[in-house]
Every structure is written in C-alpha cells, then in structure tokens.
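If your schedule permits, I should be very grateful for your opinion on a structural question. I have a record of one protein: its chain in single-letter code and its fold written as discrete structure tokens. Kindly check, if you would, that the fold set down in the tokens agrees with what the sequence suggests. I remain grateful for any guidance, and I place the record below:

***
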Amino acid sequence: MISSDQRRLLLRSIFAVLASLLLIIAVMNFYRFASSPTDENLFTDVPSNLYVFENFSAQLSNKDDLQKVVQAQIADSVLIGDLLVSINRKDLAGVENSAQFLESIAADSVLDLRVFRSTTQAMLDYRVANSAMPDSFFRKIPSCVRVIDVQQDGASYRAGMKVGDLIVRINGKSFKNAAEADLVLRSGETGKTIAYEVIRNNRTLTLQVKLAKFGVPLAQFFFYLSGLVFLGVGAFLTIKQPEIRAIQLVGLALQFIGFFMTVLFNRRGIEPGAFPFVRDLTMVVALFVGIAVWFHSEYYFPKARPELLERRWMRYVPYGFAVFFMGVTIYAGPIQNNFLSLIALFAMPVLTLLYSIVIRFVFRKQRTPEHKKLSRIVKWTGIVVGFIIFLMIFIRGVNQESGFAGIPLILIPLSYLYTIGRYRLFDMNLRIGRNIQYTVASTVWVVFLVVVSVRILLSLASLDFELPNIRFSVTSVEVLDTPPSPEQRALQERGIMMFFAVVIGWMAWKVGHAGQRFIDRQFDRAAYDYRRAASELAEVMATKLSMADLARGIVQKLSDIMHLRRVGVLFFRDQKESCCQEADGFDGVEWKEFCMDIDHRLVPALEKFRSDSRLSVDYLPPDLQDSFHEHGFRHVIPIRFKEKLVGTLLIGEKLSEAPFHNEDLSFLAAVAKQSSVAIENAFLYEGLAEQERLKHELAIARRIQLASLPQTTPKVDGLDIAGISIPATEVGGDYFDYLNGLPNEITIIVGDVSGKGTSAALYMSKVQGILRSLHGMGLTPRDLFIRVNHLLCQDMDRRSFVTTLGADFDANARRVVLARAGHLPLFYFNSQTQKVEMVTPKGLGFGLDDEGVFATELEEKTIGYRSGDVFLFITDGITEAHNRSGGEFGEENVAAILHSSASLSADQIRDKIISEVKRFGAGTQQHDDQTIVVVKAR
C-alpha cells in the first residue's frame, strides 16, 4: 500500500505528463499550421458545377435577392459565371443529364431558376419563360472550388486572382472538394510557384502563384493564446494540489477545453500522416470529456455539495452525453467538413448547460450562503463572458474574427484562480507579491505613455501642415511671395515635428511623473522625509511619560512613517524579561502569544551581538528565527542606554514589500538611540511612583494582611478544604475564614470589601472580627449575616460596602446551609449529574441597608451533598482578571476548570485555577485581589 506522499507524487507525475502531452501536441500543431504554405486566398466548395456561359434576361423573383443584385449593379439578368443550382426546385446535382431534363420541360412553361453568383456570393432566384432562354446556356465543368477572399497584396493577388474565380486544377491536379484542394496546395513548398487553372468569364486562365508561409491571423492567435491560458491554469492547479477532488476536476476541465481551443482554428482540411489523426481524435475527446468534467466539478467547487453527491447518477449523465456525441463525431468524420459533426459540437455544450441549469434550479434551496458567496465570482464571470461572446456572434456572425472571443474567455480560468486565492481555498496561497504588482503597474504605465506618445507623433507626421511662405536662414527670417522650395519646406516640417516631439515628450514626462506618484502611493512606495519623521518621533518621546504610552506612540509613528506591515517594541527591565510590549499590525492574542514565546530567550540572544546596531532575524538562534519569520518580522534593532539593553524594535516588512535600504536602516538605528533616553526616563518615572506608593502603605498592609487571614486549614471528617488569597498589592481587600463551632461542622466565609487601599484592608479586618465573635452564638448563616450587617451599618462609610458568601457544612448530615450577601455565586460541582451549578441565593451586600430590606432580601439555601461534590468560593479578582487585550477571565472559564478538575484534590483544584488565571493574564499586572476556597466532599 502506497503512502500519502507517494500517492501525491504519483498523481502529480500523471497530471504533469498529461499536461505536457497536450501542450506538445498544441505547440506542434500551431507550428505546422503557422509554417504551412499558403496562396493567401480563401476558397470553398461550390453549390453546383453547371456553369452559365451566356448572359440572358430574367426576372428576379426575390426582393432580398434584388438587394444583393443591386449591390452588383445587375438587376435583371443571369450572367456569365453564374452557377445553375436548380430548375423548378429540381436540384440538378442529382440529374444525370441536365440538358435532357431541360428539353423535357414544355416550351411554353415558366421556369424557376436558382443560380449562385460567385462574385457576390449570393444565391439568386429568377423567373423566365422557357422559350426566352437561349439553347445550351450552361455547361458542366470539372469539380472546382470558388475563391471567396483574396488577401490584399498577397501571393494570389499579385498573380491576378479575383474573388469569384473557380479553381479547377492546382499544378495540374484535380480534386473533388475544398479539403482535397487544400491538401494539394499544401503539398507545395514555401517560396515555390504553382500553377492555378481558373475559370473566369467563361475563359480558362492559368495563374502562377508563388506560395508564402501561412502565418496565423491575429484573431486565431488570440484564441490560441486563450487556450494556452486555460491549459496552463489547469496544469498549475492539478500539479499544485493533485489529491483534492475539486482541483482535479477543475484542472482537468480547463486543460481539456484549453487544448480544444488551441487546435480548433489551427487546422487546414485533410492532412496526411498520423499526427493529424492523433490531434483530431484528442481534440474530440478533450472537448466532450472536458465539458462533462467541468459539469462534474460543480459538485465539489468551491465547496462540496452533499445534496448533489448523494445522487451519484446525476453527475454521470453528462459523461453519457459525452460518449454519445463523441461517437457521433468520430463516426461522422472531421468537424470542418461534416454537418453532423458540427451539430454534435454545438449540441453537447448546449445540452449539458441546460442540464446544469435544471439541476441548479431544482437544488437551489439547498445551496448554503457560503457556497453562494464563494461561487459568485466564477458564476458572474461565466455569465458576462457568455453575454459578450453572444453579442460578438450576433453582431458579426461566425467568421474569421470569431477568434477574438478568446480575449474575454481568458477571464474564466482567471476567475477560478482569483476565487481560490481570495478565499484561500484548498490550502492554496495564490497571492501575488505587492512588489511584483508594483513592477507590473509601473511597467504598464510606462509602456502606455510610450505607445500614446508615439501614436500622437505618428498622427502628427501624417498631417498636411499649411505652412506660411517663410524661409529661415542662419541670419534671418524672410517672408516670401511664393511657396518655399521643397528642401526648405522639408526643413520647416522637420523643425515643427521636433518642436512637437519636445512638447509631447515634456508633457509625457509630467503626466508620467504624476501617474508614477499615484502608483507609488497605492503601493506604499511614497518616499518620506527623514528629518520630519525624526522630529515627529522626538515629540512623541518628549510627551509620553509612561512606558505603555511611550511604546504605543513609537510603534504607531513608525508604522505611519515607514508604511510597515508590522512593527513592535519591547522594553526590558534590568536586562531580563520584558515589562512592556506594544505592536501595530497584530491582534492582541497573536502578539501576546508571540511575546510569551520569545520573552526569556530574546535578551540573551541580543546580548551576543552587542556591536551591531541592526540585527537581521536570520542571525538569531534557529528557534527564534522560526518564531520571528512566522510572525512577519525581518529586523531587530536593539535599544541600549549606556551599554544597557533597555528595549528592542521589531521591524516587519514594508507594506510595499520593497527591501530595506541603507537609509532606512540608518534611520531606525537613530530612532533606537533617540528612544533609549525616553525609555530610561519612563523606567525612572514608574519607579518613583512605585516607591511613593510603597512608602505610604507597606507597613500597614503587612500587619493587616498577616493578622486577618487563616494560617492553618482545619481538619473536618469527610471534607477536603484548601484556600488562598493573593493580594493585588501589598494591601488586600479580600478575606476568607474558617469558623469552627461544633465537631464535624465548619463555616466557610469568603468576602470582598469594595475599593482598594488601606481603608479596604481595615474594613476587611473589622468584618472578620465581627464574624468570629458572633459565630460562637450558634447562628445560621442568614442570622449571622443579619447581625453583622446591623453592626457594620452603624460605623461603615455609606460609599463602601462588603460582599460575603457564607456556608455552614454539617459533615454528619452531609448538607450545607448557604447565605449570600451580594457576593459572587457559589460554584457547585454535582458529582451525580457531572455538571457545575452556580448557586445564587438572594441577598444584599453589608452596609447597603440597615435591617429592613437587607433581612427581607436575604435568602438561606440548603444543599445536600455526596462524596465527590465540590464547592468553590471565589472573589471577583478571579472572574475579572484581565489579559493584555482587555478581556476578562469570566465565570464560564471558572466553571469549565472546576468541571475538568473535579476529580483532583482541593489543593490541586485551587492551584489549577490560580495557574490558569495567571496564564490568562500573563504580561499584565494583577488589578484586584484573588481569593479561592475549595471544599470537596470525600
């Protein structure tokens, strides 16, 4: 059994070989066609070989035919050179002796004649009395072809050939039809003369035509190029992602139809040898199979449609059409010479299109909005291209210029590439770099200006200037009564042309310069003023005192000035880990993860390159290189203050994707030196603020915190208890307590004082003291809270309040009685239902109301528990923990962690929650106290 990689390689090889074979056949055929000899005229089969050799009067019976005849300035005569097609609707091609047939008609009858006039290529109907017709006015000529077009100044034109001539022999060889005549023609050699025996005005002429190399008409060349685009896009897709069914089908369809387009117009009649047979057979198979595969691809592109794939028979119907029409075409013969083959050629795509429309209509409601969105570009491109081609055929008909339809057809494969690239379908990144886009746009603009300028100069050169009668000399300008001499006139014209050339050149330069500036702005290539940029950055550094504001100002200004895709800055405290990170061009999560990834590794790496003002990320250790490249950074500029690493600039590529020049890197090095002083000042500023705060609160905070929180965890049978409180600063407003009353009973209290600072810590201490003193009275949690609130309301500031959650656990009865004074809910993991419930009895915070409303609103709830149940008490410092982008940890995360770790011990559950909160808020300061108590029933 082959592996996935081997299968991918095998499929890629198969598709590559198929594309190569189709391309080789297409190129060889184009070369054979373009290099084949040509007489530079077009001829086709004649409708009859009965040649009229005598003029006679007749009445034209069809007004449409009258218009055609009037154009030829002949209104009432059958002319020499006309071909007699039928008499009295009797096709003379099937009459063995047409003269005897004419004699058998009564002499007094009126005949309906149909003749073909070669010179005007018109089929005309006449009425004439049998008695008025001359005897033997026509004769049978050998099989021939009629000339329908003669290229101006071409080989046949120079030999004297005219439209309407009937060619009966080429180099003495006769033929049955135009295909055989073309075969005889191409048996000649380019540059050699061959003899054409033609009939014109009842005379047989021999014309010597020197064959030329055929070449390719422009319309056919465009159609051929369009086919190559189809083939190339299809090959690219199948080789790029050979295992994806949607890509396989789309790629094969484009290749097959593209091959058909490259061959369709580049064939000439019957050709000898095996190559034409292989080419024509491949073309027929490619057309019909390509159409069927294209229809099949709609089941998978741009997204698979299960409602269609479930009905396997539907996708195979077009393959049935393909087999049928393929057989008809192969049986009928070459497309260009067989009406049945032409019918099959047009019937297959039309029938498949109608079938596709029916399928789409029937299953229109099952299409998802995503599928409609992804397929919109391809659908509307097909509709617009089809409408354009319909207009071309409706206005001009099917002719030699039909090949220009290849120009809009190119949009179809491009629409597939655009859809895949825009929506990044099938893991394919088809984005074209902005530097390439810029180069193409600039080149097209320059070429456009040159073409327009040259065109204007050529138009001016073809004008006939009315010059005044003035003669210029070295010393004078003389006004003459007579026109100047031809030499003087030529000199004046050259002078005027030189003047216009200078003016047009100057205007082209001005317009080109303005257009290039516009292109530069669109592709972020506009030059910037380094002095002005340095001045703007200096202003940012002088006005931003805090580290966050300074870092944010630097990255935003650099991004705006240098048009950077991404830029970041890190500040390092004590040359260790980063203490401030800001970036532009990132979302918060990606930047946060990147900083966490490189935090402890970047400083040691930068210290190894102390002598470099600029460091390419390619010089970093391999693990850092990968991270920097993955996140779009190309350069690292260390920021040092007195040889001490205080920060670094991280520079991504430019929006224009242009390389960094020496002046860019010198400017960034100057920015790093300039910002080092500002960073050091920011450190000093924040250090002073920190010291000032610590000076006022450190002593009080230490004493209160140590005195208020439990130092040991009580042992209660059947309960596993663990608690912790982490203050955000030296002063904490959270508290928790274990109140023991009777054996096998414990009351858990968790509270949070509003506000922060010393006052919050003092209130916390007071609340704990009241609770401990009242708990010995054997009160339920509800009664206990009512009395505590009554005491606190007498002395507590009205702008402050305390939220508390209390639960009395009875290990013997295995129940818990709960009361809540405005605090967060109790998180309860029920081991039987394996769900986390948030128990939220009604209740107001302490200090908000004295007794009336507080007592009325306070609710007490009893919960029976069993082994494995877990009760979690927390404060809002857990749920409202912030990350760097401002998001909160939230109750949902707490519940999820409790659910996933309920099988662990109380200590482990507590530590798990704390570690997850720390990871969530990594790189940010803890803004509130965090308290957790876990009680697990055993």
